[in-house]
Each structure stands twice: as structure tokens, then as C-alpha cells.
Amino acid sequence: MSNQSVNTEDMLNNLTNVKGIKCWGAHTGIKSMRRDLAIIYSEQPANAAATFTQNDVVAEPVKLSKKHIADNRAQVIVINAGNANAGTGEQGYQGAEAMARAAAEMLKIDPEMVLVASTGLIGEPFPTDDIVEGIRENIPKITSSPKAGSFAANAILTTDTFAKEGHISFEMDGKEINIGGIAKGSGMIHPNMATMLAFIVTDAAINKKLLDRTVKKAVDKSFNMITVDGDTSTNDMVAVLANGMAGNKEIQSEDDPNFPIFEEHLTEMMIHLAKLIISDAEGASKFIEYRISHADSHETARKIARGVSDSLLVKTAMFGRDPNWGRIIMAAGNAGANFNSSKVDLYLGNNKELVQVLEKGNPKEFNKNLMKKLLRESHIRVHMKLNTGEQEATAWGSDITTDYVMFNSVYTT
């Protein structure tokens, strides 16, 4: 277990390492031969915060969870896979309410302390009875078993090829603080979250309004900086529970010396999970990091990083190992930010080597054979220095491949 970074060696107890957190993942029959129901439960009511999809078409569980988390308190998260419960109207909303009510009855808590989430196909009738039966059957099984976190992580997957998990342990006020997280997502990913879910739990004590602000800032630096295909889903949700069971003095304001420690580790967890989503992008062959530095403002760097990473022409060039830097400059100019191409230094390469292709906006000679070799790697880096200031931002994305097109052309058939 690492004390300073996300633990990637043993993820089995990612959630249950957090004091007071119990969970389970089960197969209820909604999906064939795979777990499709996850339950995350805090022994004590928790301060809570969440961000949701920005799509105008909103899934029924999102509508309900927005209502339930309005007071920034929650104790349980119930997630089903195999059916998005989106485009289902009143029947679907009643199904989301039934999920919350069933969990609340079993745990003897208020239904408003339950958040619900769904993922899967849009527009299919919601199998309320089967999911409610699964909740009633499996809540008695929630446990601190080392495998429980992994079961939950696997139960929220759809087209994912692997579970996305993480755990961080660090010290505050002489107390061990834990943050655990799971996520799902591999396609319909856009800079504004995407067909993704992420659930993070911590035993840190932090004021609920401060947690809400901190979660939104961390999401902006992580899940809002990833892209696969430019589509934002109907079901996106990032939810965080902080139950205070570590015993630290509650963090009340940003002036608290413990606040930057907590914020740093929460953001680190979200970036870790966001990168795992990109690593599992549908049909992708490359993980690409876009770093924009020396900008006049963080917002300028952020807009350009998002604009370049989301360009289909840039994505296809990366797939073809084509060092076509003109597409990168084009995308930066389209980002709606303060961009002066005559000042730009641009570098392309991989984790081992970067090659400069532009210097103050002027093309530099480079070995194209070497560049194609560098771009053949699975991890690619694009670094653009704007040379107008000291701010920076980083985005992460994938390439667009023929496999992606084939996969999504027959998704429901």
C-alpha cells in the first residue's frame, strides 16, 4: 500500500480499506453471466457531493439522485448495469424510486439517503422488479471482505474490458485517511464527463459545502479533461461520500492547513480513475496526453487542451502515426481561447522521448522515420508551449480506430 500515490498493485480492497465502508457486487440476471448490481454503504451517514451529466437528455436515476443529494448528505449508493434507465419516462423514474426505497427499507434509513445510478442501453424498459429483488437479496451480503470492492467495481461495467479501481492512504492530524474509488467508462467520453460513472469514498471529515466545492474542482481537473469520441451520455455521475470515521478534526475551510492535503489526494484519485477510463477506450490503440503549458491563464490552457484532445483529425492522425502537427495547431486555433501560433513551441513523441516540430511558430526539421517510430508506441505525448505566461493544463484522450467504428456500428445488434 502506497502512502503517497494511488495503489495500483492490489485493488481488491479499494473501497473497504475506507473505515466504515461496506459493499457488494452481484449478478441479478439483467446482464448475461456478469455482475450487474453494486451496493456501496457507509455505516454512518456521510457528507456527500456529486456532479452529473450536462446532456439535456437526463436519465431517471440522475433526476432522482440530484434531488436526494441536494442537502449534501447520503449513506448508500446503488448502481445497476445492463439498462441505463434513460428515455423510460414515468416507468423509469418509478423504477429509480423503487431502487432507493428497497435499499432504504433493508438498511432502515431514509430513502433520501440513497443515491441511485444506472448504465447500459438507453430506451429499454426498466426491469424494476428484477433489480429490486436483487437489492433485497444482496444487501444482507454487504461486507468488508477483501473481495467486496472488486465485486462492486466489476458490477458497474458495460463495454469496459477491465475494472477501474484505486486506493490512497495518507496522514492528517496524526490519523490515517483513506480514499477509495471505482469507475466505469470506455466510450461516449467527452470533456464534460461522458458515459461514465465514478464512486469515491473517504473516511476523512470535511464540511459538506466545502466537499461539494472541492469535488467540482477535482472533477474539472480529471473527468472533465478526458475524451474518446466527443459524446456526453445521459447517465454520467461522479459521487463522493465522506463519512468522517477516520477521526480527524473536520476540515471547515480552505484556510485549514489540512485542506490542500485532502484536495490533492482527492484530485489524484480522480485523475487516476479518469486515466484508466481512457486506457480502456473502445477500439483505441493509443493513450494520448495533451499538455498545454506557459499559457496566460489556466482557462486558456484548459480550453486548448480540451479542443486539441477532442479533434477527430488529431485522433485519426495519432492512429495513423502521422506527425501532422498542422492538425494540432488547427484544433488549438478552434478552441476559442487566446492563441497566438507565432509564439508556439510544439513537441510530439512518447513517454521516453519528445521531438520539437515547431519553434516560435516556425517548422523545425525532424527525422520523420524516428517520429513514426515514437508514435508507434501505445502512450503518446503532445506538449504545446504557448509562451504567453506560466499557467498550464493537461487533457487525456485516445485515438479513433477502425475497430472503434466497427464496434459502435453494431452496438445493439
Write up this protein.
The chain is an alpha+beta fold. It has 2 domains: 21-279, L-amino peptidase D-ALA esterase/amidase; 287-409, Ubiquitin-like (UB roll) (Roll). It has 11 helices and 15 strands. Strands 1, 2, 3, 4, 5, 6, 7 and 9 form an 8-stranded mixed sheet that branches. Strands 8-15-10-14-11-12-13 form a 7-stranded mixed sheet, sandwiched between helices. The longest helix is centred in the middle third of the chain and has 21 residues, at 259-279. It is globular, with a radius of gyration of 22 Å. It starts with 20 loop residues before the first strand and ends with a helix. Mean pLDDT is 90; it is low at 188-194.
Tag the structure with descriptive keywords:
7-stranded mixed sheet; 15 strands; 2 domains; alpha+beta; single chain; 26% strand; L-amino peptidase D-ALA esterase/amidase; 413 residues; Ubiquitin-like (UB roll); 8-stranded mixed sheet
CATH superfamily of the largest domain: L-amino peptidase D-ALA esterase/amidase
Low-confidence segments = 188-194
Distance between the termini: 43 Å
**How are helices and strands ordered from N to C?**
EEHEHEHHEEEHEEHEHHHEEEHEEH
The number of distinct helices, counting runs of at least 4 residues, comes to 11
Number of domains: 2
Radius of gyration: 22 Å
Counted beta strands: 15
